[in-house]
Amino acid sequence: MPLIAPRHAIAAVYAGLFFGIGVFMPFFPVWLEGRGFDASMIALALAVPQVVRLVTMPLGGLLADRSGRPRATLIVYAAATALCFAGIALAPSMTFILIGLGLAAVFWQPSLPVLDAYAVARRREGLIDYGRVRLWGSMAFIGGNLLAGALLGGVFLVKVPADTVIWLIAGASVAAALAGATLKEARPAPHETAVRRPTLAGMAPVLLVGLAAAALVQGSHAVLYAFASLMWQGSGLSTSVIGLLWSLGVLAEVVLFHSGTRVTRRLGPEKLLLIGGLAGVLRFGVMALDPPLLLLLLLQPLHALTFGCTYLGTVELVARHAPPGRGASVQALAAWATAIAMAGATLAAGPLWQSFGPGAFLASAGLALAGTTLALIAGRLRQPQSAGSGG
């Protein structure tokens, strides 16, 4: 009998993982700039974990499925992530920072697909409402945005070292490891112990096309993640306001996740992916105009659609179409597809930003449009199956 109810334990792990992401995403590029990285080097640094996870993401999910011990896997991943970021904080040069980022990606990146698969499995058992558990990750992301922004902006009237950004991420990873220790280990049924790596040939076409659509829409966020904070800082916005802008987007995502189960049942994964893509075309098309703060306050809530709908659609797509016993492997494969798109888009973001500035967001809108097209195709592939099942 677990000491903490499953919904609370899983929510705590999500919170630990996403608090660190909430610090990393807005303020790690700013920290890199403070360590002497130019735009191209910042893009390279942010692309390193994306490239590394092309290898580690599928292997991380496969390891969790093969071992049948997702709890132990999550604890090891989170603790190792903390050690890697501690090394980044102490790194003496750019080269060692890049090496530290690569090592951190080995453990940090596979954690979320493993946790998603674990949470979906508990949802099938009737123990949790996935959306309402997952929203605590988004709440923690907001907490990371606001706390890091406030600390760096001197809101608490205390000057903190720039490396505080890194130590906050390391501390959040330690918290995730401790929270993981409260989970109940999930052991597979005997017929599920011999898990094999999922192959593309054995996967439903709707799943393959849907995962490609999700990867493109998520990849369209690359310029935003790499350069939005620097763009806003260059426009004269304080770190506190920058943190608030990031938090606003994720707060809208929290509202979506609170009703995530109902929304997912009503719309289905393909329509969720379509909505995410269309919202991306609008959001990033306007971002290319370098909008003022007032318009940014209206644009940021679209994150609930560009990221949130795409995320829910991906998780549900895998939940419906993954072979039995391969949930973590296919979730990791979905994240791997996203990593390919994100790595390529992030590497391209540096030169695009140096050449065109905010105009680089037009490339983001183009990726979102491509994802929208694939989401439409996935919906068409799904329709004959739905019609057949209704007979």
Automatic annotation (TrEMBL):
InterPro entries: HcaT-like, MFS_assoc_dom, MFS_trans_sf. It is a multi-pass membrane protein. It holds the Pfam family MFS_1_like. NCBIfam families: mfs. Keywords: Cell inner membrane, Cell membrane, Membrane, Transmembrane, Transmembrane helix, Transport. The chain crosses the membrane at residues 9-28, 40-62, 74-91, 97-121, 133-158, 164-183, 204-228, 240-260, 272-289, 295-318, 330-353, 359-379. This is PPP family 3-phenylpropionic acid transporter. It is found in: Cell inner membrane. One of its GO terms (molecular function) is lactose:proton symporter activity. Residues 12-359 form the Major facilitator superfamily associated domain. One of its GO terms (cellular component) is plasma membrane. It comes from the Bacteria.
